[in-house]
Structures are given as C-alpha cells and as structure tokens.
Prior knowledge:
By secondary structure, this protein is α+β, with helices and mostly antiparallel strands.
Amino acid sequence: MSEVRYTANVQPGVAELSAAEWDALTDGANPFISHAFLGALEDSQSVGDGTGWTPAPITIQDSEGHLAAALPAYVKTHSQGEYVFDHSWADAWERAGGDYYPKLQIAVPFTPATGPRLLTRRPELIPALLRSAEQMCLDAGLSGAHATFIAPDQVAAFEAAGWLIRHDIQFHWTNAGYAGFDDFLGALSSDKRKNLRKERRAAQEGVTIRALTGEAIRPEHWDAFWRFYQHTGSRKWGTPYLTRAAFDLLGERMADKILLVLAFVEDHPVAGALNFIGRDCLYGRYWGATIDKPFLHFELCYYQAIDAAIALGLSRVEAGAQGGHKLARGYAPVRTTSAHYIAHAGFRNAVADFLRREREGIAQDQNFLATRTPFRRLG
C-alpha cells in the first residue's frame, strides 16, 4: 500500500475552498468555524483588503488535493477585533526596535467564542498544522502566531508544540437541567431571585419581544438590527466590524443557526440581540437599541438567551467577552485560553515571564468571582 502524502498550503480564503470538505473537518457543533460563517465574512468584505484582517487559512491536503486539516488564520496589521489584548506586547516589542505587525491570528474574526482552531479528523496531522503556522511566520517575517479562544480539548496540542498559554475569564450560563426560567430562579438566593424578576418586569413593560429564527427573519428585521449594531459599534470601537452585507449573507446561508431577539414598541423595532445556535451552546454576539430603557439590555441579551437555551435543550450560554455585570444574572466565571508562538527567542522569554504572572492573577480572580455568584449556598 502506497504511503499517503500531504502538502501544506496557505490559501487566499475559506470561501474559495470546498464547503463540504471544510465542514467535514469538524463535528458541526460550532457555527463560527463553518464554511458558511467564515465565507460570509470574506464575501461581505468584513475581512480582506483595508480591514487589517487578510484571510490566510492554512490547509493540509492529501495527494489528491482533498482537505485533511486546516487552521482558520488571518494576517493582521493591528490588534482590533480579537478580544485577547496584546497591545502592551506590541508596544514593548516596537520600543525595542522590532516590528510586531504583521502577525498571524488563528481565530474567528470579531468573535470571542470558544471553539476548535485545529480543524481535522486526523489527530496525527495536528503537529504538522502547528509547524506550518510557525514556518509561515518565519518565511513571511511575521512576529508570531496567536490562537485565541481555543476549545479546551485542543489546548494540550498547543502546549505540546511549545506555544505559550494565556488565560482570561468570561461569564457563561450553565443549564443544570432546568425546566424553565422559574426553575432557574429557584436555584438563586432569595434577594437575587427578586432582583431578576424585578428587572424582567421593568424591561418587558411597554414592549413586545419576539425571538426569530430561520425563515421568520425577514429583510426588514436585518435592516432594524443593522441600525442597532451601528449604534453600539460607533460607541464601542468607532467603526462596526461587520458590513451591512454580512448580515444578509449570514441570513441567507445559516438562518437556522441564528436567533434574533427583537423588542418592538407598537410594531416598531427598538432593540435587538443577535445569537448563534450551536449543537450544545447558544452564543450571544451583538446587541443594540435606539431607546434607553432600564434593564432591556439584560432582558434581550441574558434572560431571553436563558429562555432559549432551556427551550432548545442547550447546555450553556456564552454571552461574549467581559462584563462582570453578568455575574449577578447567573453567568458564572469560566476560564478561556489562548496560545501564542513568538518567533524571536528573547521576546518569547519576556512574554513567557509575563504570562506566568498573569495566569496567577487570573486564577485568583476566577476563584474570587466564583464565590460571588447569585446561587444559593448549600450546607
């Protein structure tokens, strides 16, 4: 039997690859690493020329040209839209006379959601994938490679390759087999339970809330959400990352994986939250509003997400990056992980020392926050 030979390549984008072959590299549980999602970002020009995100997926193909493994990767000329902050590293390296940019980002753009980064059904190809990323950095003069929001079961592969490990904290809601929102409230302490009920009543007063998915999401709904998204984006990061076309393409290609929650006043949409549905997780991504109504943000982004996760039988809700205010609403601290390959040995040692100290602080923060959840204490 002849030996199968593999070839590593840097591709111009995911959209140009076979959707069937790309999606076959995963188990289909995470919507963000699907061909539909990543391809929509490219086709809508949310990534590409002028964005600082140049698609450069690394693939391993067999002798017949079929995909056997891949990394969703981008050459970056800035550190925006990543949610794992390395600006201080860039400043330090450039003060020392180096060029931190461009760099290689192994991630889903603008999406701080945990998921697979090593896409393959052949575990024996994983070391070759990581070596290919390292070699690309050396060949192209990139300062390093950064894989962010790595699925927990893939962290060991990065560690085995000698990449530096970094931790941070997000707040996720976990479904403990709840029959409904009231059942979830029953797990909270009395005062927290009263606060959440009060917030929901105040948020729902005077508005009608509709949760839409699939064909129920119409073009006028995307028009409304685009207004909300622009309003939030202009306040938080200056220019929204996604183009208007991105929402149309996502709606066309994966509407069954989208949950759009809209609030209406007299049939006029005034606020909305966009979620993506995974196999066992609901991922909250964007929110915006044209009115200032107390607790409406919490209702659309957190409480409606809990309602949906329970109804869909999902195990958890990931509500995005940061946000300590999620803690009081039943979202507990969870550790997230990134991995970093730094090409320059001296700079790598300095970053390694920084990360050792940072991890200690993150662990302490997580332990403290875990004691501040709103759940009843037993025993």
